[in-house]
Amino acid sequence: MNKEEFLERYAIDRKGTNSLKWDKLEERFGDADLLAAWVADMEFKAPEQVIEALKEKVDFGVFGYTYAPESYFEAFINWEREHHGYEVKEEWMRFSTGVVTALYWFVNAFTKPQDAVMILSPVYYPFANAVKDTGRTLISSELINTAGVYTIDFEDFEKQILENDVKLFIHCTPHNPVGRVWTAEEAEKLLSICEKHDVLVVSDEIHHDMTFGDHTHIPSAIVAGGRYSERVITVTSASKTFNLAGLLTSQIIIENEALLEQFDTFVNSVNQTEVNMLGMTAAEAAYNYGADWLEGLREVVKSNERYAVEQFAEHAPKLIVTPLEGTYLLWIDLRAHIQPDSVKEFVQDTCKLAIDYGEWFGENSKGFIRLNLGTEPNYIKQAVDRIIEHLPQS
Ligand SMILES: Cc1ncc(COP(=O)(O)O)c(C=O)c1O
C-alpha cells in the first residue's frame, strides 16, 4: 500500500477519545493546548481485518475467560518466521499484558534485590524504572554519540559488567530512542560479552517491524545462528507495529527450559490472569493480514522523517538529527541552538508541542527531544515548522 492510500484509509483525529497522547496533556505537561508528538502511539486506525475480527467477537457478545488459541500461536509463529527469520516454538511462548509489565517480571524472576542490571543509555525510560522500582542496582553504559550516530562502547560495556557483577542486561533492539537497528556484528559482540560473563539478556524487540532500507532486525535469539538463544529472553508485541497498545497483549519467548521454569514460578506468584480476549483477537488478525497496512505505515513514517530531515538541514543546519534506521521515533539534538535548561520552555511554551524530553531517557541526554513520526504529515509539518520558526539562531 502506498502512503496516500494509507493516509486516506486510516488517518484519524483522536482528540476527545480518552487518548493518553491527546487527552492527558494537561495532566502530563500542564498545558492541554499542545500538539501531541510524544508517547509512541499513532493517529492511525488498525487494519480493517483487525476491526472486523474484533466486531465478530463483540457481536457474539460473550466475554468470558479465554485462552491463547492454536490459531494465535500459528499467526505469531508465521509472522516471526516470515518477517524476522525466527522459528519460534509454541512451548517457548508466554503472555503478558504489556512489554513493560514483562520487564518488571523478568527483573524480579531472574535477579535478586540489589543485583546489578545493565542498560545502554539513553534508552526507553521504563527500563531504568523496572530496575530501580524492584530494588535492583541500575548500571548504565553510555552509547557513543558521533555527530548523532550512536554506537555501543563495548569496552565500557564489558568493564561495567565486570566491575559491578552485572547479572542481567536489558537490550532494546531496534533501539528507542536512538533509532539504531543493531547490525549482526554489533549484536554478536554484545551477546558474546554477555556470554563470557554469564549475563542473562532480556531482548525488548517491540519495534522489530519498523525498520527501513537495508537495516534488518535480527532477533537476539538467532544472532550467530542461535548461539546465544539459551541466555536470551525475548519480549515483543503487535502493539507498537499495529497501534494496538490499549489492548494490552504481548508475548514472551524463553527457549531455555530452566529459565522458563524460573519465569513460570515467579509469574505464578504475582499473576493469575488469563489472556485478554480482544487483545489476542486483534493481534492474530494483524499478524495474519496486516503486512500491507504495515508497508503503508512505513512509507508514511519515512516520508515524515524526510520532511523533518530536509527542513532542518535547510533552515537549522546546526541541529543534529539522528538517522532513523528503525522505530518511528526521531531523536533530535537541540543543543547547538538552545541551552539544555531552556528546552522545555522552548518546546512547550514557545512551540506549543508535547514531546518526550531527552533527560527522560538518560541523564546525559538533556537538550535532546524525541519526536513521534507515527502520525499525519500535517502534524509533523506543524511540529517541524514551529521548531524552525522559533529556534534561536546561535
Ligand atoms: C522499547 C519499548 N518497550 C516497550 C514499550 C511499551 O510496551 P507496552 O505498551 O507493551 O508496555 C515501548 C513503547 O514505546 C517501547 O518503546
From TrEMBL:
Keywords: Aminotransferase, Lyase, Pyridoxal phosphate, Transferase. Signal peptide: none annotated. Its EC number is 4.4.1.13. GO terms for molecular function: transaminase activity. The keyword Transmembrane helix does not apply. Gene3D superfamilies: Aspartate Aminotransferase, domain 1, Type I PLP-dependent aspartate aminotransferase-like (Major domain). This is cysteine-S-conjugate beta-lyase. It comes from Sporosarcina ureae. The lineage of its organism: Bacteria, Bacillati, Bacillota, Bacilli, Bacillales.
